[in-house]
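Entry details:
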Amino acid sequence: MDIGKEITNHLEWIENIASLLGNEEITEEDIGVIAKHDMCALGQWLNSEASVLFEDLPEYQKLVESHEEFHKLAGSFITAVQLNNESVAIESHQQFIRMSRKVIDSLHILQEHADKGNDGEFR
């Protein structure tokens, strides 16, 4: 997995979530998928044997934790918006953005480790 591309994909995923906000047709199933950390490319990589090269790094564990929390917060945010619960939506959105930054920061750190050992791609 190309880490730089994954950061771009992560940012695009956030934009896709934002585009759902005006959509009245978001189903519980859609929200369930959004809230699952293993449905996106990064989550699938984190759960694969390909990530074994990074598993001993503390940054890897931080990435796993922040990525899981990021998806939970995305689900909470969308749910709060759907329910017109403004205070919960605002708080969820703020936490969602903070967690997104943690995911990106962890990816940058893993990129530095990858650059030291290979061509910058997850294997």
In short: Residues 70 and 99 are 5 Å apart (CA to CA). The radius of gyration is 15 Å.
